[in-house]
Amino acid sequence: MADRRRLLSEWIQAVGMRSLRKTVLLAIVASVVLVVALLHSWPTRAYTTVDVWQRPGPAVERHLEERFPEPDHRSANIPYRVKESIAGLLARNGCVCEGESGGMNLPFAQLLFPRVSAHPMHTAFEASELEEMKKRRAKEYQGFQMRSQTPADMLIVAEANNPLQYPTQGMEVRPLKTILIPGLAVQDHPKELYTVNFTSTLGTLNVAAEVEGVKVKGDGEMHMTLTSSLLSNLNRQLQFVTYTNTLFHPSTADTVQFETEGHQAMFTIKVRHGVTPKLYNTGPKGEYNISALVTIATKTFMRYDKLQGLIDSVRKYYSTVTIVIADDSENPKTVSGPYIEHYIMPFGKGWFAGRNLAVSQVTTKYVLWVDDDFIFTANTKLEKLVDVLERTTLDLVGGAVREATGYTATYRQTISIEPGEEEGDCLHMRRGFHHIIQGFPNCVVTDGVINFFLARTDKIQQVGFDPRLARVAHLEFFIDGLGSLHVGSCDDVIVNHATKIKLPWVSQSESDKTYAKFRYPPASSDATHTKNGLLYFKNRFQCLTHN
Amino acid sequence: MADRRRLLSEWIQAVGMRSLRKTVLLAIVASVVLVVALLHSWPTRAYTTVDVWQRPGPAVERHLEERFPEPDHRSANIPYRVKESIAGLLARNGCVCEGESGGMNLPFAQLLFPRVSAHPMHTAFEASELEEMKKRRAKEYQGFQMRSQTPADMLIVAEANNPLQYPTQGMEVRPLKTILIPGLAVQDHPKELYTVNFTSTLGTLNVAAEVEGVKVKGDGEMHMTLTSSLLSNLNRQLQFVTYTNTLFHPSTADTVQFETEGHQAMFTIKVRHGVTPKLYNTGPKGEYNISALVTIATKTFMRYDKLQGLIDSVRKYYSTVTIVIADDSENPKTVSGPYIEHYIMPFGKGWFAGRNLAVSQVTTKYVLWVDDDFIFTANTKLEKLVDVLERTTLDLVGGAVREATGYTATYRQTISIEPGEEEGDCLHMRRGFHHIIQGFPNCVVTDGVINFFLARTDKIQQVGFDPRLARVAHLEFFIDGLGSLHVGSCDDVIVNHATKIKLPWVSQSESDKTYAKFRYPPASSDATHTKNGLLYFKNRFQCLTHN
């Protein structure tokens, strides 16, 4: 028994050792293989790096319109005569800060013939800090330029007699997606071999189908060549060329070079997400439901009597419209009632901060801005303003404000910016408007209006009221809105202004005095937060002219 | 005496009558002439009308990338083989709301191999109101399209072998201003007479100089012709062609046709104000001055203990940074201290309303968003986040939030939108990122991050937090920011999260209970103000897929 056990154990040992070793070996090998297979099949992704550093890019050729092009050798001797009336309209090399000089100095001259005055902005700063401010502004501006310019702004000229046909505008691809490039073709004279090639930088080129008789090289890369001896086959292949964006950026453009022997072309593919809409529910069909469409927004400071006057007058005509009130008074009182939203701010935080706050809370399609001392009357028909915005592409439409004297103002202003160089741009404001709106004879298109207007909520929130403007400010909002807001003004929707006429025998109330102290204060300590300081630093203006 | 008087008076009468008549006549004529002269010289301006009505414009040819171009008669017989790997990447005709089906149903499957699930958005609405919502959304979307599309989006293809040379990209004119059109030329074969003409729609064409030997017709109008027998003279004249915008619009484009016999070309001139910068004062040079550069913003609701915990922890490291607090608690308590700005809102106004309010008050270059239950530690180095935004073109950079368990999250999400048809677009969200940022090995580029991030104030104010989102919401901000915000995420700047772990033996405090009631509420009454309802109506999505 012991023998057999011994022999068995010896045998097991002998066989077992080898098997054990083998098994262990096999197990080890199997595990390794499994792990390798697992690692291999594990969804790995090689993350490439992306360079998003702020560096200077290629200079954009933008100054062509400022001077006449140099003649080349062929045209140097061709005589021409300058047409002053047109040449004078072209932009100068940098703007100059000057108003209109001279003019009559009669009593009502400024009233009848308002002269243009020019105001340099750098005066907001002490001489000692101006140099530093200039440097800082230039540095911030450089960063801004690098973030806002794209290859889609670059000047491209199509060469003449190019056998290449290609798209010059309208191509867009969403980030990291693929599109077919439309409109590509070659119309060359008969040749033995036709070759075209493509070069891109933010993505790769490929073909969605392979056409017989065409050799494709570099598909899936940033440089692709197509060759064929048959022109019609090459052209059929060109209808299947694709572009895939591979270097992520939410809003940029790739410039693609397209070449054939002796000729080249350049075109741009915009790389960006589509514009996602921000739509508002307008309430049930039928007549304009003002409560569903409009929120009234205002800011108040130390004059609850005026504010209550506004609210009471609104409620006479619109009992359920939401009124949003931003309040930075010193000892805030409760303002309550149905559809009233009262927001308390730190004392004296400021005018535009309050405007920005009020507007940030609106959930309806439109917002009506009013000052806290307005009074609604039977002439304050909000339906008319809603009608204008519902039926036109305008973003904001102003009304008219009627003083106690009967004088009614629309305060229409046109605004334009003349580019300058390192000193900054020149801002030009003039009373007036651009055109009358077809179909709305009481309404015009302009750039700035009085502080009584209806606006699309998404647009006004996008532009915003800069909270750095603590006290007196108005047109700064419209300056910030230039290019974004399409502005109109109608003179047949009128709101009354609670009187501001100071009668000499009526003493100012305490709250009036405090109000006046804040409303018309001495200069702030932070120069860049004053109106001119902000125009200088934030918007990069050197000069403001107005009449 | 009486005689002399009588004779005198008779004489006066005789002479006087004629003179009187003459004088009166002269006086009348003189007045008329004066009035006419005055009226004539009075600065009158013929205001033209402008049509800004919302009407359907030319359909934008955008669907080329969705299907293969039809072969014309020449290429119909050329065989080709579809390359599935590429053809499959092209956009389909409308997106389909589907997730990933099948997959393992093991316990940790969703954790290890997260499956993509698809959620239709229309379910936010009762069946009875869905049809009405669809119609209303379509109408609002149509208005949005009319306001946002411009001729600069239109597909233009340059024809081959065109003797015309012309600019295809990069031309801009400020509204109502004039530019020289660069790059124009003709390179035609020898002819007796060379003629080119231009046609524009939003402005007029002219020449800034007149070249000998060239006849100009229609200068100052919307159709201008240049004729010459000498090609080099015509080309010299083409260097002086100008465009003047006359129909005001703050942001549009004019498509100009350029033709010669047998050939034509089209190019676009953008009509828009330049982009006015919004720069911020960064404080004195040297190291990053966090108080001058950053404002901390947060929203609080019914948990002043957590809020005080946040404030105390911030002050350990940044004693003078401004903290802006939006508070919609039921019985607001005073929160005060140096550099603290406390804003009181109507009770329960909402999460995104509060975020929008806080951010609307920031006056520094950057804003740091924190939740009111975060705790700053020695790892919460804001200088690192500022460094990223100062040195790259990113607009927002997220950090990491560390739970009590030690688990640290960056919550990186990539977001893309697949265009759909009338049903709406499809929104795709996936965990992950796009690239690692060169030079910042702990940072990546992505589309959405956790609620701890530093952002450029002007960009975050421009995107905004939609106040219609009252309760649970997070990625909606990043969805609204798609295309505007360039987003990054760094995992080496960490803030702690005050514990949310509900220990079973610790009973919830009253304030915790109220907080929970509002934080995780039942569905709101206005369906378009729920998360899905808003995605459906406001952003026009039909579907959301995510993993």
UniProtKB/TrEMBL annotation, chains A, B:
Highest taxon listed in the record's lineage: Eukaryota
GO cellular component: Golgi membrane
Alphabetized InterPro entries for the sequence: Glyco_trans_2-like, GM2_synthase, Nucleotide-diphossugar_trans
A Pfam family hit: Glycos_transf_2
Topology in the lipid bilayer: Single-pass type II membrane protein
GO biological process, one term: ganglioside biosynthetic process
Protein keywords: Disulfide bond, Glycosyltransferase, Golgi apparatus, Membrane, Signal-anchor, Transferase, Transmembrane, Transmembrane helix
All residue ranges annotated as the Glycosyltransferase 2-like domain in the record: 296-461
Subcellular location: Golgi apparatus membrane
GO molecular function, one term: acetylgalactosaminyltransferase activity
PANTHER family: BETA-1,4 N-ACETYLGALACTOSAMINYLTRANSFERASE 1 (PTHR15046:SF1), GLYCO_TRANS_2-LIKE DOMAIN-CONTAINING PROTEIN (PTHR15046)
UniProt subunit comment: Homodimer; disulfide-linked.
Similarity comment: family membership: Belongs to the glycosyltransferase 2 family.
Protein name: Beta-1,4 N-acetylgalactosaminyltransferase
The organism of origin for this protein: Salvelinus namaycush
